[in-house]
Design goal:
Blueprint lengths: L4 E3 L4 H13 L4 E4 L5 H6 L7 E4 L9 E4 L2 E5 L4 H5 L2 H6 L1 H7 L5 H4 L4 H7 L6 H7 L3 E6 L2 E6 H4 E3 L2 E2 L6 E7 L6 E8 L10 E10 L2 E10 L6 E2 L1 H7 L6 H14 L10 H24 L2
Parallel strand pairs: 1-3, 2-3
Antiparallel strand pairs: 4-5, 5-10, 6-7, 6-10, 8-9, 11-12, 12-13, 13-14
Helix pairs in contact: 5-8, 10-11, 11-12
The protein binds flavin-adenine dinucleotide.
The site of flavin-adenine dinucleotide has 31 residues, from strand 2, helix 2, helix 7 and strand 10.
């Protein structure tokens, strides 16, 4: 391993300035949140030296707000804290079940969902759930901040839309209405400590028995997690009958462009993503019905 530098700026402005000056001088940097990906990456052979910039002590990245105006989850908030926040358990059970699938209890004590997003693994568990919930990235820039929907933040395997000098401050999410619920389901060959073969995040609104709003996102079956508008359109205006839900699953299958690897063939992943979509719709529907 080559030598590494470490910095823990005390303000967002200082962090952005350090990122920008390092980029200008051609010096590599890497943001550190929970470190559960960063430390594994630092130990991998051939990883180049860089300055690790720790954002955990910034006030902005430690912001956690849940109120009628909306939800804010700062980039330093670990999954364990999210999962134990009562108001989030009620508002976003699907996002929390995704966060609860990241590694083990020990991993969740450090891992952040923003780190999961920035790492941009195709199989990142929290990402389809964030997209379904309508999360928007709050990005610190040299001129202030900019907002990017999560589905537009992912630009490739391991690649996100952050420009040099930028970092993710946190996520903004709308506060779901009483008749809106989300769900996330993934399939793995093992029950724990494994990465998804396929994952689906769903958020549904049901009004007077009809689906009046829906967002459905798929993960681990394409280079990035993605919003599948055709799946939502298949159930909008319906009473979530079997034919409509089946059509949503088929839309997820059509939107998938998976690889074949030791966890499963591309054909298998397409089948699984359709099944997960149907089941996740069922879970969200049950949550709305309060059962
Ligand atoms: C044993 C084990 C099991 C795991 N199981 C799962 C699993 O089941 N599902 C799953 O999805 N993941 C899993 N992971 C991967 C990892 O735990 C998650 O991706 C985690 O959410 C990363 O969060 P972090 O805060 O630790 O990120 P870090 O490791 O701190 O950062 C991850 C990446 O994002 C960048 N980054 C972090 N925060 C920011 C920011 N605010 N702005 C800009 N860039 C940023 C970092 O520079 C780095 O490139 C597992 C990891 C381990 C070690």
């Amino acid at each position: 391993m080559e030598s590494y530098g470490y910095a823990a700026p005390s303000s967002v402005a200082e962090t952005v300035a350090l990122l920008a000056s390092s980029a200008e001088q051609g010096q590599a940097t890497q943001i550190l949140a929970g470190g559960t990906d960063v430390l594994v990456q630092m130990r991998s052979a051939g990883h180049q030296a860089r300055t690790i910039i720790d954002i955990k002590s910034l006030a902005e990245t430690n912001r956690l707000e849940v109120n009628a105006d909306g939800i804010y989850i700062g980039a330093a908030i670990p999954s364990a804290v999210i999962n134990e926040t009562r108001a989030l358990q009620e508002a976003l059970p699907g996002l929390l079940e995704a966060a609860d699938l990241i590694g083990s209890t020990q991993i969740q004590g450090r891992a952040t969902i923003c780190g999961n997003l920035c790492n941009a693994s195709p199989a990142g568990d929290s990402i389809p759930a964030m997209i379904a919930a309508g999360a928007v990235c709050d990005i610190a820039t040299s001129s202030g901040s900019r907002q990017v929907p999560v589905e537009d933040f992912l630009v490739g395997v391991g690649k996100n839309a952050l420009a040099p000098g930028e970092f993710l401050l946190g996520l903004r999410l709308p506060m779901p209405s009483a008749n809106t619920k989300d769900a996330y389901l993934r399939f793995t060959p093992r029950t724990e400590m494994d990465i998804a073969v396929a994952g689906v995040g769903v958020s549904l609104t049901v009004t007077d028995g009809l689906c009046t709003d829906a967002r459905i996102a798929i993960g681990a079956v394409a280079p990035t997690a993605k919003l599948v508008s055709a799946a939502a359109e298949a159930i909008l205006g319906t009473d979530l009958n079997e034919a409509a839900v089946h059509a949503a699953g088929e839309a997820c299958k059509a939107a998938a462009s998976p690889i074949s690897d030791k966890r499963g063939t591309a054909e298998y992943r397409r089948k699984v993503v359709a099944v997960l979509c149907r089941r996740a719709i069922g879970v969200a529907k049950q949550r709305i019905q309060g059962s």
